[in-house]
């Protein structure tokens, strides 16, 4: 019975995620198109304007990244709060020892609190780093900035993977936990909260992946641009005469 329920829930989750992904990808694709147009502009524009546009693009990327990080922070906090505020489950056997059970937090909660708290630290650090990058935007060379951004994004993706794993764990544990201790009425609320969190994480992951792609595009463009600059004067055509000796 429990297994069937779990399977059904998982299926529902998957369907929801698919729907969400479809909905999410549309605006993101539009954004990508816009950026591609910008990149085309970059290729067509004179040097001075090109530099300006590059800076603008970088700024845009930084701001997007910051928004993503803030979303992530909110997500982690959103997971932390219910965990901290969850009522301790009533003991399976109702004895007179209720006083002792309320003081100790259930092991599940302690298990989940630690990784979430650990996730908070790198997130805050990344936010700080982004702040720094925003400040350095005008000082650093665009190429260097892009490389830094790529690094940041990779870190972010790693964090996201961790978070998604955590979420799945949380979901399963919560389901089990509440199924075990409570009537089915409370399980619905917990599942809805977990589904919302998972959906938000999926949105975040999709955006980060797209951001990464975009960054790579920009990087390629910049490299191409640099390459052109350096190899302007080396256009010596060497004519090789091949002597065929029979």
Radius of gyration: 26 Å
Number of helices: 6
Strand runs, count: 0
Largest sheet, if any? Answer: none
Overall geometric form: elongated
Number of domains: 1
How far is the first residue's CA from the last residue's CA?
Answer: 87 Å
SSE sequence, one letter per element: HHHHHH
Query: Helix/strand/pairing class, anyone?
Result: mainly alpha
Share of helical residues: over 70%
- Whole-number mean pLDDT: 67
Beta-strand percent range: under 5%
Q: Could you name the ranges where pLDDT drops below 50 across 5 or more consecutive residues?
A: 94-105
Transmembrane segments: 31-49, 56-81, 112-139, 146-179, 199-223
Keywords: Membrane, Transmembrane, Transmembrane helix
In short, what is this structure?
With 246 residues, this protein is an all-alpha fold. It contains 6 helices and no strands.
Describe this structure in words.
With about 250 residues, this protein is mainly alpha-helical. It has one domain. About 85% of the residues lie in helices and about 0% in strands. Helix 2 packs parallel to helix 5. The protein is elongated. It starts with a helix and ends in a 16-residue tail after the last helix.
